[in-house]
Amino acid sequence: MPHHDHVRLRPVSEKDLDLFERLHEDRAELGDLGFFGYRNPGQLRRQWAEHGFLTAQGGRLTIAGDDDRFVGEVQWHEVLQGPASPCWNIGISLLTAERGKGYGKRAQRQLVEYLFAHTKVNRIEACTEVSNIAEQHALEWAGFTREGVLRGACFRAGTWHDMVIYSVLRAEVVAKT
């Protein structure tokens, strides 16, 4: 499969919303690792209308591929590792047809660079199920270090699943750029 070097992150626009909703509400699109039960229909559009998916506590950006087309989204939210120690936890969702083409690893690396450039956090973390080997490789390519396994941390499809936690620190990205 071809790998795409042209990846750009941008705010979610109105033209993205149909595919954005499909990415989060269509069980077939979500696949085995992405379906966590049905959600409130229309909630994503209401959130977009209210604050464009960008707040001080987190956000979502469109992953735009060739010709600025929507291929997925990255997201982040604040996590406290100590009373005065916020960090970001990031996630990614790609349309099924766009997986395995290199968009994910490049988008996650761009998100890390963006968050370190525009926020004061020192740590960015990401978790994925232990069975999601593709995402683990993408995180490692993007500069993350595997820290360990969070046992029984994710409830999906009626059972608890182990998660792998990764992180990247500000100094590690500054040193590499």
UniProtKB/TrEMBL annotation:
GO terms for cellular component: cytoplasm. One of its GO terms (molecular function) is protein-N-terminal-alanine acetyltransferase activity. The keyword Transferase applies. SUPFAM superfamilies: Acyl-CoA N-acyltransferases (Nat). It comes from the Bacteria. The keyword Transferase applies. Keywords: Transferase. Residues 7-171 form the N-acetyltransferase domain. PANTHER family: FAMILY ACETYLTRANSFERASE, PUTATIVE (AFU_ORTHOLOGUE AFUA_7G00850)-RELATED, RIBOSOMAL-PROTEIN-SERINE ACETYLTRANSFERASE. This is GNAT family N-acetyltransferase. It comes from Streptomyces fagopyri.
